[in-house]
């Protein structure tokens, strides 16, 4: 199957700093990418949907100024957590889909810890 | 609107015995249905998917699921559990009219005991 690479796999940052998470589709062009957040022992919560070259669509309750999403190319989307606080600590997962597929391919996730 | 319900948050089986993870869905349109597995601190791996072809879908690692429209169910089964099957399993639904947005169930933690 297609490969989606997410980097870094884990990151620890100080409160008030910003963190960038990258999501790359390695062997296909991802016209749509999704960003999820997962709290411990809970399901995935969709944060936003991004289409290449356009602004991301955020789910209700997700602060777009705090979680900046950029999908500048067909193989790369980034999520930047700005002015991170301990409550932003979570597991963030991206997924990517090409223009024709009904299947989404997931990255391996990023464990963010804000101290 | 679409939704998916995983009826059991935890399932415990003995190694070598059958596995049944239940999933019911609600969708206004013909859905696509998926089962994903997640090991601790890892991303999601697709086990199998149903996209309006054969109703009995075979996936990886011996798992299979049957799409039953009359029951709006898509239960995941495996004849014989292995220790390595212990993980979190998510049932997921999407449909074309919804922008292919995935809706996740709450997950089922599968425990496999010796």
Q: Could you characterize what this model shows?
A:
The complex is a heterodimer of chains A (115) and B (114). Chain A is mainly β and 115 residues long. Chain A contains no helices and 11 strands. By secondary structure, chain B is mainly beta. Chain B is globular and about 45 Å long. In chain B, strands 2, 5, 6, 10, 11 and 12 form a 6-stranded mixed sheet that branches. In chain B, strands 3-9-8-7 form a 4-stranded antiparallel sheet, with no helix packed on it. Chain B has a two-stranded antiparallel sheet with strand order 1-4. The interface between A and B is medium-sized, with 24 and 23 residues.
Span between termini of chain A: 37 Å
Give the low-pLDDT segments of chain B. none
User: How many beta-strand runs of chain A?
Assistant: 11
Main pleated sheet of chain A? 7 strands, mixed
Mean pLDDT over the full residue set of chain B: 91
Major pleated sheet of chain B: 6 strands, mixed
Assign the structural class of chain A, choosing from mainly alpha, mainly beta, alpha/beta, alpha+beta, or little secondary structure: mainly beta
Describe the structure concisely for a colleague.
The complex is a heterodimer of chains A (115) and B (114). Chain A is mainly beta and 115 residues long.
């Amino acid at each position: 199957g297609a490969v989606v690479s997410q980097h870094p796999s884990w990151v620890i940052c100080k409160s008030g700093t910003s963190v960038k998470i990258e999501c790359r589709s390695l062997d296909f062009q991802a016209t749509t990418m999704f960003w999820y957040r997962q709290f411990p022992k809970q399901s995935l919560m969709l944060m936003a949907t991004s289409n290449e070259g356009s602004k991301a669509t955020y789910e209700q309750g997700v602060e777009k100024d705090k979680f900046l999403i950029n999908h500048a190319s067909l193989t790369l989307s980034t999520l930047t957590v700005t002015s991170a606080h301990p409550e932003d600590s979570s597991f963030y997962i991206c997924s990517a889909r090409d223009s024709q597929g009904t299947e989404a391919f997931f990255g391996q996730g990023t464990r963010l810890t804000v101290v | 609107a679409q939704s998916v319900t995983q009826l059991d948050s935890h399932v415990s089986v003995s190694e070598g015995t059958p596995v049944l993870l239940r999933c019911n869905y609600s969708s206004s349109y013909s859905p696509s249905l998926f089962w994903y597995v997640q090991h601790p601190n890892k991303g999601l791996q697709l086990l199998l998917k149903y996209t309006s072809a054969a109703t009995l879908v075979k996936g990886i690692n011996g798992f299979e699921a049957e799409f039953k429209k009359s029951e709006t169910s898509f239960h995941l089964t495996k004849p014989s559990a292995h220790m390595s099957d212990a993980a979190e399993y998510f049932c997921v639904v999407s449909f074309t009219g919804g922008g292919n947005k995935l809706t996740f169930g709450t997950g089922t933690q599968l425990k496999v005991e010796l």
